[in-house]
Amino acid sequence: MPHTIDLNCDVGESFGAYKLGCDADILDYVTSANIACGFHAGDPATMRITVKLALEKGVAIGAHPGLPDLVGFGRRLMKISPLEAQDIVVYQIGALDAFVKTEGGMMRHVKPHGALYNMAAKDEVLAMAIAEAICRVNPELILVGQSGSQLIEAGKAFGLQTASEVFADRSYEDDGSLTPRDQANSVITDHLRAVRQVIGMLQMGTVRSRQGTEVVVKAETICIHGDGPHALQFAKQIRTALDCAGITVQA
What is this structure's pTM? Predict the structure, then answer.
């Protein structure tokens, strides 16, 4: 079992009059914040407010670039070229980085969002395009990607520091991918089951797939989602479970 682990959360996903999540509270329990950059969610004011909150609470800041799909929350598949992928990633990193710098902070990582993340997990060409975009913006940024994915391999190929991610509130398939959200039981709503999954991944280095197979995972950062109806309670329970297991939670 690792002695330390990062706990990250997707935040800054409100947009205009639409409010999503409880960012101010949930940032008290996580160590890294993946802030939406305006394509799948978020807007300039939300980005600024979320950056300030993260800095005040000592939470590491990362860009959370997604597909240009506000209506679908960036979770719908979209056919894009490698160059388009580079452009949207560079654009979104740059937008968030401007807010981080104006508030006196420093961006630490990049984690693609939703469909872009899942597509890059399996598509080597797309993963390489995203990794190259990050490297060209700032080679000191950490690339967060799913454990065992093409995204992690692409980051290493470009000399980026990578962080292998596992999910507390998502179910897995036999091939190690996340269960698509349009499938039954893709999201774990039972908090106790999610806690058991997290501790199991840290203790054993495996996660039980939806089909019943033990899948090997590497856990360097744990994701919880901030848009669920019980996200804050979920964050508290995960953090408490990690503390009770003697694991230090830090970025």
Answer: 0.94
